[in-house]
Amino acid sequence: MQTILLSREEVARRAKHLYESTIRQKIELEENIGKMVIIDIETGEYKVDENSLHAADYLSAKHPNARLWESRIGYNVAGSLAGVMERLSK
What we know:
Layout: H1 8-27, E1 36-40, E2 46-49, H2 52-62, E3 68-72
């Protein structure tokens, strides 16, 4: 199967759409706030884990050429270097 190249912006757009339309209501629970979610933008599969590498490895094992996107559940960014991670309100 031929791989179609997508820009970073298109990957993010697709992932955010999946997150908002189907994933958010399932995972944005108090016990998951601060954990990472990795989304395969082509299959819609996702994995929640404390460690994004474990989640990415899990999805990559199922689909070796998966296009993955990561986000920190309940926050505006996945990580910060001397910046501010703001908690999103529900």
